[in-house]
Amino acid sequence: MASFCANCHGEGGNSVNPEIPNLADQNPVYLLEQVRQFSTGQRKNEWMEKMIKALNSDEKVGMVLYYSSQRVLPHPPKVAAAVLDKGKDIYKRICFLCHGQDGHGGEKFARIAGQQVPYMVATLKRYRNSGAARNNPLMEASTRTLTDDDITAVAAYVSGME
Q1: Which fold has domain 81-159?
Q2: Which residues are CB-neighbours of 120 under 8 A, at least 6 positions away?
């Protein structure tokens, strides 16, 4: 099944499309919960909902175990040091509380270290703007006051984390 997922999420879970998340090195409990949310429609994405529903339980667990055991390959952007410093400052004030000092997340929070900038920017803006596709009151509150420049800076900082 991982070979089919690789069409979008890349070989070994490192997406070649910067707007699609890396699955590599995610916590298996977290990743399995996301699979469950797609299968119930709690997390909205028409393509993913259909794909996940087509998998049996063993395939879901196998896919999760495969991707969680892969190494994420960070894509640090070429941006000014001031942008990275700003992103680091915001991360250290807000994001680390849930995603950890290293951005590796855990059972309840995503690993964001190594995610690509376009995916992170889109995700953070959806939370900030209360996008219904993935409702999370904690993320909405944490991103509410962030400007577009703040979001770009955080995304740039996170994408270079290993």
Answers
A1: Cytochrome Bc1 Complex; Chain D, domain 2 (1.10.760)
A2: 112, 151, 154, 155, 158, 159
**Which pLDDT score, from 0 to 100, does residue 26 have?**
97
Tokens of 129: 């703007």
For 125-158, write each residue's pLDDT tens digit: 999 998 666 678 899 999 999 999 999 999 999 9
Domain spans of the chain, in order of start? 2-68, 81-159
Mean pLDDT of the chain: 93
Domain at 2-68, CATH class: mainly alpha
Residue type, 44: K
